ABC transporter ATP-binding protein/permease
Amino acid sequence: MSGVAFEDDIQLERERARFVRRRSLHLLGSLLRPMRWRFALMLLLVASAQGAKALGPLLVASAIDAGLPALISGDPTRILLDGGAYLTAAVAGGVLTLWFIRLNARISQAALFDLRKRVFLHTQRLSLEFHETYTSGRIIARQTSDLDAVREVLDSGVNQLLSGFLYMAFIAGLLFVLDPWSGLVLLAAAVPVWFLTRWFQQRSQLHYRSTRVASANLIVQFVETMAGHRAVQAFHRERRNLDEHTRLADEYRVADQRAVGLIGVYNPGLVLIGNVTVAALLAVDGYRVFSGTLAVGALVAAVLYAKRFFTPVQDMAQFYNSLQSSVAALEKISGLLEEQPSIRPPRQPVPLPRAAGRIEFDDVRFGYTPERDILPHLDLVIPAGQTVALVGSTGAGKSTLAKLVARFYDVTEGVVRLDGVDVREVAFADLRRAVVMVTQEAFLFSGSIAENIAVGRPEATREEIRAAARAVGADRFIELLPDGYDTDVNKRGGRLSAGQRQLVSFARAFLADPAVLILDEATSSLDLPSEALVQRGLARLLDGRTAIIIAHRLSTVEIADRVLVLGGGRLLEDGSPAELIAEGGEFAELHAEWESTTV
Ligand SMILES: Nc1ncnc2c1ncn2[C@@H]1O[C@H](COP(=O)(O)OP(=O)(O)OP(=O)(O)O)[C@@H](O)[C@H]1O
């Protein structure tokens, strides 16, 4: 399994390329399998339509060589039959084509619908660890441009490629039946076409891979700039971002230009080979007609076939680029789908329907990467109902410790327990109910305030939502909003301040009513009235549950039962705020510092 590991590589080594190809085909197969009978019917329709279309020149030859002489000697039957057959074949070809295009659209749209859903479901399932490194820009590229590339091929792939291929096969076959010598001339022309196509294939595959990588890089940079536009403006990064964007856009331009440039060689090459073939046929067959070994009708049919033979090649070549980008897209999507969540649900979950909230770190060691331990060794017990403030310098490992309790990551060694049960053995649903993490950003989803609070417990009634808001003191500002609880948070007038967002996220957590609450306190300083409001809301939220607060404020530390000072991933101090101040260690210093800045 390699997942998304090699998705930026332009040139894959042989073994890996084969693996990636197989993975894409497997994905395609799994998408089409449920519709295999419909797919088979479509193939049959495509084949029949092409067969009917290819009959034309043969009937023309028969009309000229047999029908015309019979007509001249007074018998119109043969030529009428040939004309009728020609008409029937043309109508049948048209009707069958219409039918298979419609069927193709149904099949391809159903497959895409399935794929779109799978990609969404899967990315949602992947663990935080994956999302932290893969970036949302890439996910967006997978969901948008890559799915579009796959759509293009599924929509017209069978139509262009398969029908083109079958048409050529029928033409070659019929020409051999009609006149093997002409068939041989056509076959000889296929040799340079084959070499030219191989050349084109190999180059365009490389170029198309680079265009996909370049387009994904562009999207990543764009999303990052837009998502961080506040920081961009605050730090006047516009110029630098523009330079970066220009560089990436230029890479994209160059890559695309190279890819398109290939068609400029390939297409005229094909046209040339086609024309030379027609000229060769005219020369060879013309001589044979002259010497009486070939009928005129056969010559006409051979020329018609030769001209028609190369028409689909051009279409197929044009289409080859879309196919390449679609193959590259499918390779990436299949890689993404191959990624496994690093946090796995337990095989035999221990039920924990109503946790009390006792947390225990037993001999825990943890690092995000094998090279570096963030928490080298931690033993810690937090009794149920205790409010713990985590303090420490930046990068000390406070968020990391909190993430281990919520099982966003698994420990490298040792055990984290909730109510005595290893968190790795608790069913996801129970763990998510028992442990809720309120992050600094206080993320709001699009929708109303009420819907945003209900995220904590989707089945909550309006009264329960109001009660939660009331409990944390969010009701007053909500009722003053234009539409109260129904105010859309993304509309003007519904835009909330940092403090208000915090209160909404508290109400959400209150409604969820977890046994353990983890709170990454916002570092941004609120003004004093908001801070007082948020602190009151917080106090009500904490009541009766275990809480771990990554604290950045004096007022928060003061409501904690216990303070843990973390430094370099180790517990440096542990005690009640009063005890630690009396001891005069690091916390006492920090406390004094906070006190001096808040007055
Ligand atoms: N996803 C990650 N992958 C790799 N390293 C990480 C990851 N997240 C954090 N780290 C590293 O782990 C260390 C501890 O980070 P953590 O976020 O736990 O610190 P913190 O004490 O919460 O800091 P802050 O107060 O600044 O939020 C840091 O050195 C950081 O670089």
